[in-house]
Task: inverse folding
């Protein structure tokens, strides 16, 4: 039975899903990071290959029946990056006996859109480790705002929320702000007891962007318990992300009444963040319809591959 595989390569984790051509899930699991910007191209590629091998080892699916591999990768927009990935994976699939599998490389925003609304045009706001606003016009024009990485601009991302959480802990310790539930949660999560110990933790050479983003979770948890500092922080980051959405919508008239998919763990885990984002957005753009992404981006990637495989199958040789 032919099937397609979808992969969502994130900075923290990679999801893989295998689907029938009708979209029914056959297998799926999660592995380590495969964002080339976070771990380098070679490590990202070998993680993806490892997950493909595991899929074929642990399920009855055979490489020969694979009709397509869709891969959504954060930050992969340029044609030369897509070609590099496509060449590497196509070559490897041929060697492994998946001779008929077409390879569809897209960025993770395109797979989120396709998986959620079943079409290529629309807008997606991603708030995961990083953040980005990405839109595709009905003519296929691809536009973006933000997503420039943690130093140049990742407003409203897990990283930014994590960083602000740590700063809030220090502000509270310094007596500039009242006590916050974020302090105890953030410190105990990394086995520390005093805020000043955070300095060694944060500036350790091995510390990564993902380690800082991990603290966003304690901000979200504190907000759910009514902590006012956490609520303020999450609201401010949601407003900053909505400002990026507004900038994107101004770039093309079709976006003013488009569907906007909300993707990434921050939207998934914080209703407050979602509502603050929507409230700010709808002040200027009341006709934009938001949808929380409920499928996995790996599902979207596999559906895109199925669509491309179908299109390729219809083309005369
Ligand atoms: N259960 C949870 N509750 C709250 N926040 C969470 C939870 N799990 C993960 N997060 C936060 O979500 C962020 C990671 O998001 P996500 O898993 O969507 O990113 P990613 O796909 O690895 O990264 P990216 O797509 O940006 O490369 C981190 O900031 C983390 O703190």
Result:
């Amino acid at each position: 039975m032919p099937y397609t595989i979808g992969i969502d390569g994130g900075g923290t984790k990679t999801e893989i899903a295998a689907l029938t051509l009708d979209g029914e899930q056959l297998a799926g699991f999660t592995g380590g990071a495969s964002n080339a910007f976070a771990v380098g191209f070679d490590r990202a590629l070998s993680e993806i290959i490892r997950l493909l091998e595991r899929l074929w080892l642990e399920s009855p699916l055979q490489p020969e029946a694979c009709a397509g591999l869709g891969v959504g990768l954060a930050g992969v927009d340029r044609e030369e990056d897509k070609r590099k990935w496509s060449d590497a994976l196509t070559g490897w699939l041929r060697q492994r006996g998946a001779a008929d599998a077409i390879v569809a490389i897209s960025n993770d925003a395109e797979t989120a859109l396709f998986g959620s609304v079943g079409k290529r045009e629309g807008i997606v706001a991603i708030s995961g480790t990083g953040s980005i606003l990405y839109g595709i016009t009905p003519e296929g024009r691809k536009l973006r705002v933000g997503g420039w990485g943690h130093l140049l601009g990742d407003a409203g991302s897990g990283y930014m929320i994590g960083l602000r959480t740590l700063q809030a802990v220090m502000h509270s310790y310094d007596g500039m702000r009242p006590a916050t539930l974020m302090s105890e949660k953030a410190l105990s999560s990394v086995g520390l007891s005093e805020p000043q110990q955070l300095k060694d933790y944060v500036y350790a050479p091995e510390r990564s962007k993902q380690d800082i983003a991990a603290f966003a979770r304690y901000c979200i948890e504190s907000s759910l318990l009514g902590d006012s500092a956490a609520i303020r922080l999450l609201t401010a980051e949601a407003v900053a992300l909505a400002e990026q959405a507004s900038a994107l919508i101004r770039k093309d008239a079709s976006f003013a009444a488009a569907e906007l998919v909300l993707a990434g763990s921050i939207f998934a885990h914080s209703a407050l963040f979602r509502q603050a984002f929507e409230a700010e957005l709808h002040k200027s753009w009341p006709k934009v319809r938001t949808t929380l992404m409920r499928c996995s981006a790996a599902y979207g990637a596999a559906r895109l591959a199925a669509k491309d495989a179908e299109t390729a199958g219809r083309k005369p040789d």
In short: The pocket of adenosine-5'-triphosphate is lined by residues 10-13, 35, 74, 108, 128-130, 158, 162, 213-214, 216-217, 220, 264-266, 269 (CB under 6 Å). The two ends are 23 Å apart (CA to CA).
